[in-house]
Amino acid sequence: APSPLGQDGLAARPPRGRQHCRISDQETDGKTSAASSNDFSDPIYKEIAITNGYINRMTREELRSKLAEFKLETRGVKDVLKKRLKNYYKKQKLMQKEYINGDSCYDYICVVDFEATCEEGNPPEFVHEIIEFPVVLVNTRTLEIEDTFQQYVKPEINPKLSDFCISLTGITQDIVDKADIFPQVLQNVIDWMRQRELGTKYSYSMLTDGSWDMSKFLNIQCRISRIKYPSFAKKWINIRKSYGNFYKVPRNQTKLTIMLENLGMNYDGRPHSGLDDSKNIARIAIRMLQDGCDLRVNERIHGGQLMTVSSSVPLEGAPAPQMPRYRN
Protein backbone atom coordinates (compact mmCIF):
# COMPACT_ATOMS: atom_id res chain seq x y z
CA ALA A 1 0.00 0.00 0.00
CA PRO A 2 1.26 3.51 -0.73
CA SER A 3 2.53 5.47 2.27
CA PRO A 4 -0.11 7.89 3.59
CA LEU A 5 2.60 10.05 5.10
CA GLY A 6 3.10 12.31 2.14
CA GLN A 7 -0.55 13.00 1.40
CA ASP A 8 -2.77 16.01 2.01
CA GLY A 9 -0.07 18.63 2.00
CA LEU A 10 2.05 16.90 4.65
CA ALA A 11 5.16 17.50 2.61
CA ALA A 12 8.38 18.00 4.51
CA ARG A 13 8.51 21.32 6.27
CA PRO A 14 10.32 22.27 9.45
CA PRO A 15 8.05 22.71 12.48
CA ARG A 16 8.36 26.21 13.94
CA GLY A 17 8.69 25.99 17.69
CA ARG A 18 5.57 24.55 19.22
CA GLN A 19 2.63 25.24 16.92
CA HIS A 20 -0.23 23.96 19.04
CA CYS A 21 -0.32 22.16 22.34
CA ARG A 22 -3.64 20.53 23.04
CA ILE A 23 -3.26 17.01 21.78
CA SER A 24 -4.20 14.07 23.92
CA ASP A 25 -1.46 11.69 25.02
CA GLN A 26 -3.71 8.77 24.10
CA GLU A 27 -2.84 6.64 21.08
CA THR A 28 -5.29 6.98 18.22
CA ASP A 29 -6.46 3.59 17.04
CA GLY A 30 -9.82 4.53 15.62
CA LYS A 31 -10.62 6.42 18.80
CA THR A 32 -9.09 9.52 20.34
CA SER A 33 -9.61 12.14 23.00
CA ALA A 34 -8.05 15.15 21.30
CA ALA A 35 -11.02 17.29 22.29
CA SER A 36 -14.20 16.09 23.88
CA SER A 37 -16.41 18.14 21.57
CA ASN A 38 -15.07 16.56 18.36
CA ASP A 39 -17.10 14.24 16.22
CA PHE A 40 -14.93 11.12 16.23
CA SER A 41 -16.85 9.66 13.30
CA ASP A 42 -14.98 12.17 11.11
CA PRO A 43 -12.95 10.24 8.50
CA ILE A 44 -9.85 12.09 9.70
CA TYR A 45 -9.63 9.72 12.70
CA LYS A 46 -9.71 6.69 10.41
CA GLU A 47 -6.90 8.24 8.37
CA ILE A 48 -4.87 8.78 11.55
CA ALA A 49 -5.48 5.18 12.70
CA ILE A 50 -4.43 3.81 9.28
CA THR A 51 -1.27 5.91 9.38
CA ASN A 52 -0.49 4.71 12.91
CA GLY A 53 -0.71 1.12 11.68
CA TYR A 54 1.64 1.98 8.83
CA ILE A 55 4.12 3.64 11.24
CA ASN A 56 3.98 0.60 13.55
CA ARG A 57 5.30 -1.56 10.69
CA MET A 58 8.23 0.72 9.83
CA THR A 59 11.82 -0.24 10.67
CA ARG A 60 13.96 2.07 12.79
CA GLU A 61 15.83 3.25 9.69
CA GLU A 62 12.57 3.97 7.83
CA LEU A 63 11.34 5.93 10.84
CA ARG A 64 14.56 7.97 11.01
CA SER A 65 14.42 8.65 7.30
CA LYS A 66 10.82 9.88 7.45
CA LEU A 67 11.53 12.03 10.53
CA ALA A 68 14.52 13.58 8.73
CA GLU A 69 12.28 14.34 5.77
CA PHE A 70 9.98 16.30 8.11
CA LYS A 71 13.02 18.02 9.70
CA LEU A 72 12.27 16.31 13.02
CA GLU A 73 14.69 14.92 15.62
CA THR A 74 15.98 11.47 14.55
CA ARG A 75 17.62 10.37 17.82
CA GLY A 76 15.98 7.96 20.24
CA VAL A 77 14.91 4.35 20.61
CA LYS A 78 12.40 2.89 18.14
CA ASP A 79 9.29 3.42 20.34
CA VAL A 80 10.23 7.07 20.83
CA LEU A 81 10.68 7.53 17.06
CA LYS A 82 7.26 5.93 16.37
CA LYS A 83 5.55 8.18 18.90
CA ARG A 84 7.29 11.26 17.47
CA LEU A 85 6.19 10.49 13.91
CA LYS A 86 2.62 9.55 14.89
CA ASN A 87 2.19 12.76 16.85
CA TYR A 88 3.60 14.93 14.09
CA TYR A 89 1.23 13.40 11.54
CA LYS A 90 -1.74 13.58 13.93
CA LYS A 91 -1.01 17.22 14.77
CA GLN A 92 -0.80 18.20 11.10
CA LYS A 93 -4.06 16.41 10.31
CA LEU A 94 -5.97 17.94 13.22
CA MET A 95 -4.58 21.40 12.49
CA GLN A 96 -5.89 21.13 8.94
CA LYS A 97 -9.33 20.47 10.43
CA GLU A 98 -8.78 23.19 13.06
CA TYR A 99 -9.53 20.66 15.79
CA ILE A 100 -6.68 21.86 17.98
CA ASN A 101 -6.96 24.73 20.39
CA GLY A 102 -3.63 26.57 20.33
CA ASP A 103 -3.72 28.20 23.76
CA SER A 104 -4.10 25.38 26.21
CA CYS A 105 -0.63 24.83 27.58
CA TYR A 106 1.43 26.81 30.06
CA ASP A 107 3.60 29.66 28.78
CA TYR A 108 6.44 28.56 31.05
CA ILE A 109 7.54 25.50 32.98
CA CYS A 110 9.70 25.86 36.11
CA VAL A 111 11.88 22.78 36.58
CA VAL A 112 13.01 22.18 40.16
CA ASP A 113 15.33 19.45 41.46
CA PHE A 114 16.36 19.99 45.10
CA GLU A 115 19.49 18.64 46.69
CA ALA A 116 19.12 17.77 50.37
CA THR A 117 21.25 16.63 53.29
CA CYS A 118 21.73 12.88 53.30
CA GLU A 119 23.66 10.07 54.92
CA GLU A 120 24.92 6.83 53.40
CA GLY A 121 22.20 4.19 53.46
CA ASN A 122 19.54 6.85 54.14
CA PRO A 123 18.66 5.84 57.73
CA PRO A 124 14.86 6.17 58.21
CA GLU A 125 15.14 8.57 61.15
CA PHE A 126 17.35 11.03 59.22
CA VAL A 127 15.67 14.39 58.51
CA HIS A 128 16.45 15.71 55.01
CA GLU A 129 16.98 19.47 54.69
CA ILE A 130 17.16 21.30 51.35
CA ILE A 131 20.69 22.56 50.64
CA GLU A 132 20.31 23.61 46.97
CA PHE A 133 17.30 25.34 45.40
CA PRO A 134 17.60 25.52 41.58
CA VAL A 135 14.93 26.64 39.10
CA VAL A 136 15.24 26.24 35.32
CA LEU A 137 12.74 28.32 33.33
CA VAL A 138 11.56 26.68 30.08
CA ASN A 139 9.71 28.77 27.50
CA THR A 140 7.15 26.39 25.93
CA ARG A 141 6.78 28.58 22.81
CA THR A 142 10.46 28.90 21.88
CA LEU A 143 11.29 25.49 23.41
CA GLU A 144 14.39 26.91 25.06
CA ILE A 145 15.79 27.32 28.55
CA GLU A 146 15.23 31.04 29.05
CA ASP A 147 16.72 31.55 32.49
CA THR A 148 18.06 29.77 35.59
CA PHE A 149 18.13 30.43 39.34
CA GLN A 150 20.38 28.72 41.88
CA GLN A 151 21.02 29.32 45.56
CA TYR A 152 22.42 27.13 48.30
CA VAL A 153 20.72 26.78 51.67
CA LYS A 154 22.14 26.56 55.19
CA PRO A 155 20.74 23.49 57.02
CA GLU A 156 19.68 24.02 60.65
CA ILE A 157 19.01 20.57 62.17
CA ASN A 158 22.15 18.91 60.78
CA PRO A 159 24.39 21.89 59.91
CA LYS A 160 27.42 19.64 59.28
CA LEU A 161 27.23 17.77 55.96
CA SER A 162 28.21 14.10 55.86
CA ASP A 163 31.18 13.08 53.70
CA PHE A 164 28.70 11.00 51.68
CA CYS A 165 26.54 14.09 51.01
CA ILE A 166 29.55 16.21 50.00
CA SER A 167 30.84 13.59 47.54
CA LEU A 168 27.35 12.90 46.12
CA THR A 169 26.27 16.50 45.55
CA GLY A 170 29.58 18.32 45.22
CA ILE A 171 28.27 20.86 47.76
CA THR A 172 30.95 21.66 50.36
CA GLN A 173 30.62 22.59 54.03
CA ASP A 174 31.96 26.06 53.25
CA ILE A 175 29.21 26.64 50.65
CA VAL A 176 26.33 25.87 53.05
CA ASP A 177 27.99 27.70 55.98
CA LYS A 178 27.93 30.91 53.91
CA ALA A 179 24.39 30.36 52.56
CA ASP A 180 21.09 31.85 53.76
CA ILE A 181 18.57 29.79 55.69
CA PHE A 182 15.60 28.36 53.77
CA PRO A 183 12.93 31.09 54.33
CA GLN A 184 15.27 33.74 52.89
CA VAL A 185 16.15 31.57 49.87
CA LEU A 186 12.44 30.85 49.26
CA GLN A 187 11.78 34.61 49.35
CA ASN A 188 14.57 35.08 46.76
CA VAL A 189 13.03 32.39 44.54
CA ILE A 190 9.62 34.07 44.79
CA ASP A 191 11.10 37.50 43.96
CA TRP A 192 12.88 35.98 40.94
CA MET A 193 9.66 34.34 39.70
CA ARG A 194 7.63 37.53 40.21
CA GLN A 195 10.19 39.57 38.24
CA ARG A 196 9.50 37.21 35.35
CA GLU A 197 5.74 37.85 35.75
CA LEU A 198 4.91 34.20 36.34
CA GLY A 199 1.29 33.73 37.39
CA THR A 200 0.42 37.32 36.44
CA LYS A 201 1.27 37.98 32.78
CA TYR A 202 2.36 34.41 31.99
CA SER A 203 0.86 31.04 32.94
CA TYR A 204 3.25 28.48 34.35
CA SER A 205 3.58 25.16 36.14
CA MET A 206 6.23 23.58 38.34
CA LEU A 207 7.87 20.37 37.03
CA THR A 208 9.90 17.77 38.93
CA ASP A 209 11.61 14.42 38.29
CA GLY A 210 9.44 12.25 40.54
CA SER A 211 7.07 13.27 43.32
CA TRP A 212 9.44 13.55 46.31
CA ASP A 213 10.89 17.03 45.61
CA MET A 214 7.57 18.61 46.53
CA SER A 215 5.73 15.96 48.55
CA LYS A 216 8.77 15.07 50.68
CA PHE A 217 11.67 17.55 50.61
CA LEU A 218 9.73 20.83 50.34
CA ASN A 219 7.00 19.56 52.67
CA ILE A 220 9.52 18.56 55.38
CA GLN A 221 11.57 21.73 54.90
CA CYS A 222 8.55 24.00 55.40
CA ARG A 223 7.81 22.22 58.70
CA ILE A 224 11.45 22.59 59.81
CA SER A 225 11.41 26.30 58.87
CA ARG A 226 7.98 26.74 60.53
CA ILE A 227 6.37 28.19 57.42
CA LYS A 228 3.23 27.08 55.60
CA TYR A 229 3.63 25.14 52.37
CA PRO A 230 3.80 27.64 49.41
CA SER A 231 0.63 27.68 47.29
CA PHE A 232 2.51 27.97 43.96
CA ALA A 233 4.11 24.53 44.56
CA LYS A 234 0.94 22.64 45.56
CA LYS A 235 0.56 21.18 42.04
CA TRP A 236 3.24 20.06 39.63
CA ILE A 237 4.12 17.97 36.59
CA ASN A 238 5.88 14.73 37.56
CA ILE A 239 7.86 14.21 34.35
CA ARG A 240 8.42 10.51 35.12
CA LYS A 241 4.66 9.90 34.95
CA SER A 242 4.28 12.09 31.84
CA TYR A 243 7.18 10.33 30.10
CA GLY A 244 5.91 6.84 30.99
CA ASN A 245 2.37 7.59 29.83
CA PHE A 246 3.44 9.37 26.64
CA TYR A 247 6.06 6.92 25.38
CA LYS A 248 4.25 3.89 26.87
CA VAL A 249 7.18 2.63 28.92
CA PRO A 250 7.22 0.92 32.36
CA ARG A 251 8.14 2.83 35.51
CA ASN A 252 11.65 1.36 35.66
CA GLN A 253 12.37 3.08 32.32
CA THR A 254 11.73 6.58 33.73
CA LYS A 255 14.94 7.27 35.66
CA LEU A 256 16.65 10.47 34.52
CA THR A 257 19.63 8.80 32.79
CA ILE A 258 17.41 6.19 31.10
CA MET A 259 14.94 8.83 29.84
CA LEU A 260 17.86 10.79 28.35
CA GLU A 261 19.37 7.64 26.82
CA ASN A 262 16.07 6.55 25.23
CA LEU A 263 15.70 10.01 23.70
CA GLY A 264 19.21 9.75 22.25
CA MET A 265 20.78 12.29 24.65
CA ASN A 266 23.65 12.18 27.12
CA TYR A 267 23.67 13.67 30.62
CA ASP A 268 25.24 17.12 30.45
CA GLY A 269 27.10 18.33 33.58
CA ARG A 270 27.60 16.85 37.04
CA PRO A 271 25.03 14.28 38.27
CA HIS A 272 23.43 15.29 41.62
CA SER A 273 24.18 18.95 41.07
CA GLY A 274 20.65 20.33 41.53
CA LEU A 275 21.09 22.89 38.75
CA ASP A 276 22.61 20.40 36.30
CA ASP A 277 19.94 17.80 37.10
CA SER A 278 17.27 20.49 36.52
CA LYS A 279 18.80 21.47 33.17
CA ASN A 280 18.81 17.84 32.02
CA ILE A 281 15.21 17.36 33.14
CA ALA A 282 14.38 20.54 31.18
CA ARG A 283 16.02 19.01 28.07
CA ILE A 284 13.73 15.98 28.42
CA ALA A 285 10.68 18.26 28.85
CA ILE A 286 11.63 20.23 25.74
CA ARG A 287 12.05 17.05 23.68
CA MET A 288 8.67 15.77 24.89
CA LEU A 289 7.02 19.07 23.90
CA GLN A 290 8.68 18.81 20.48
CA ASP A 291 7.35 15.26 20.19
CA GLY A 292 3.81 16.54 20.81
CA CYS A 293 3.39 15.67 24.48
CA ASP A 294 0.86 17.76 26.36
CA LEU A 295 2.82 18.32 29.58
CA ARG A 296 0.32 19.17 32.29
CA VAL A 297 -0.07 18.97 36.06
CA ASN A 298 -0.48 15.35 37.20
CA GLU A 299 0.25 15.51 40.95
CA ARG A 300 -0.59 17.70 43.93
CA ILE A 301 -0.18 17.87 47.68
CA HIS A 302 -3.25 18.27 49.87
CA GLY A 303 -3.20 18.20 53.66
CA GLY A 304 0.39 17.00 53.50
CA GLN A 305 -0.61 14.00 51.33
CA LEU A 306 0.49 13.25 47.77
CA MET A 307 -2.43 12.95 45.34
CA THR A 308 -2.88 12.30 41.62
CA VAL A 309 -4.42 14.93 39.31
CA SER A 310 -6.56 13.52 36.49
CA SER A 311 -5.66 14.48 32.92
CA SER A 312 -9.34 15.39 32.37
CA VAL A 313 -9.12 18.31 34.83
CA PRO A 314 -9.16 21.67 32.96
CA LEU A 315 -5.68 23.10 32.44
CA GLU A 316 -4.89 25.72 35.07
CA GLY A 317 -1.58 27.46 35.73
CA ALA A 318 -0.05 27.94 39.16
CA PRO A 319 -0.92 31.10 41.12
CA ALA A 320 1.44 34.09 41.32
CA PRO A 321 4.08 33.10 43.88
CA GLN A 322 3.72 34.55 47.37
CA MET A 323 5.76 34.04 50.51
CA PRO A 324 3.82 31.70 52.82
CA ARG A 325 2.95 32.76 56.36
CA TYR A 326 4.81 31.43 59.37
CA ARG A 327 3.14 28.58 61.25
CA ASN A 328 1.73 29.36 64.70
SSE layout and pairings?
Blueprint lengths: L42 H14 L3 H10 L8 H19 L11 E4 L3 E2 L13 E10 L4 E9 L10 H7 L3 H5 L4 H14 L8 E5 L3 H13 L10 E4 H9 L8 H7 L11 H17 L8 E4 L2 E4 L20
Parallel strand pairs: 1-5, 5-6
Antiparallel strand pairs: 1-3, 2-3, 3-4, 6-7, 7-8
Helix pairs in contact: 1-3, 2-3
Structural class comes to: alpha+beta
Shape: globular
CATH architecture label of the largest domain: 2-Layer Sandwich
How much helix, percentage-wise, in residues?
25-40%
Low-confidence runs of at least 5 consecutive residues: 7-16, 18-37
**Strands, count:** 8
Radius of gyration: 21 Å
Describe the main β-sheet briefly: 8 strands, mixed
How many DSSP H or I helices? 10
Task: Name the CATH superfamily classification of the largest domain.
Answer: Ribonuclease H-like superfamily/Ribonuclease H
GO molecular function: exoribonuclease II activity; metal ion binding; RNA binding
Keywords: Cytoplasm, Exonuclease, Hydrolase, Magnesium, Metal-binding, Nuclease, Nucleus, Phosphoprotein, RNA-binding, RNA-mediated gene silencing, rRNA processing
Cofactor: Mg(2+)
Main location: cytoplasm
Description of the structure:
The chain is an alpha+beta fold. It has two domains: 4-96, Transcription Termination Factor Rho, Rna-binding Domain, Chain A, Domain 1 (Orthogonal Bundle), CATH 1.10.720.30; 108-308, Ribonuclease H-like superfamily/Ribonuclease H (Nucleotidyltransferase, domain 5, 2-Layer Sandwich), CATH 3.30.420. It contains ten helices and eight strands. Strands 1, 2, 3, 4, 5, 6, 7 and 8 form an eight-stranded mixed sheet that branches. Helix 1 runs antiparallel to helix 3 and helix 2 (60-69) runs parallel beside helix 3 (78-96). Residues 7-16 and 18-37 have low confidence and may be disordered.
